[in-house]
Amino acid sequence: MNKDNHSTRHPFYEETLESKPIFQGRIISLQVDTVRLPNGETATREIVRHPGAVAVVAIVDNKMLVVEQFRKPLEKVQVEIPAGKLDAGEEPEAAALRELEEETGYRAKSIKHLQSFSTSPGFAEEVVHLYFTDDLEQGTVRLDDEEFLTCEAITLEQALTYILEGRICDAKTLLAVYAWRLRTLTGSF
């Protein structure tokens, strides 16, 4: 929906009356908006701004490429599909190709967009663009200076076990595993 088109606004639309920047970081920013509710009352909304991200379901020899890394907000090591944030002005497909090679050392010869989804629409605007490839060739791992991870290829059964064990618990990787399982069972997404 176009936020500027007053004639087609949804009855639940919240008009922004004021927006106050609170924090500007390298990856995210935080603002507090004062909004007019549908009933005419006002409320505040805390909003995290994020440039968006990409993630890749990459299958090689019937195994999914995953990375294992420490996630400070959770205070634990997680197994996740290759992913990363969009750089300024970067197209999602280009970012997906870049992140896949940087984190796994594999280069996708072709890639397919599966879905774009909001991660936490109650407080964040982040959208993750999920891609699929099984058309891979060897490339070069190029981790960022602050990035420490290992890459492995796991079977669908291992992925399901990792979910049960809590080693996989992030939304993008859960979605990836279930999409891969659907493709394995039906032949399509």
Automatic annotation (TrEMBL):
- Cofactor(s) required for function per UniProt: Mg(2+)
Q: Report what the protein is called.
A: NUDIX hydrolase
Could you tell me which InterPro entries the record lists for this protein?
Answer: Nudix_hydrolase, NUDIX_hydrolase-like_dom_sf, NUDIX_hydrolase_CS, NUDIX_hydrolase_dom
Q: Which GO terms describe its molecular function?
A: pyrophosphatase activity
One Gene Ontology term, aspect cellular component: cytosol
Write the record's keywords in alphabetical order, separated by commas: Hydrolase
Q: Where does the Nudix hydrolase domain lie? A: 48-176
User: Alphabetically, which GO biological process terms does the record hold?
Assistant: nucleoside phosphate metabolic process; ribose phosphate metabolic process
PANTHER family (alphabetical):
NUDIX HYDROLASE DOMAIN-CONTAINING PROTEIN, UDP/ADP-SUGAR PYROPHOSPHATASE
Q: Which organism is it from?
A: Cohnella herbarum
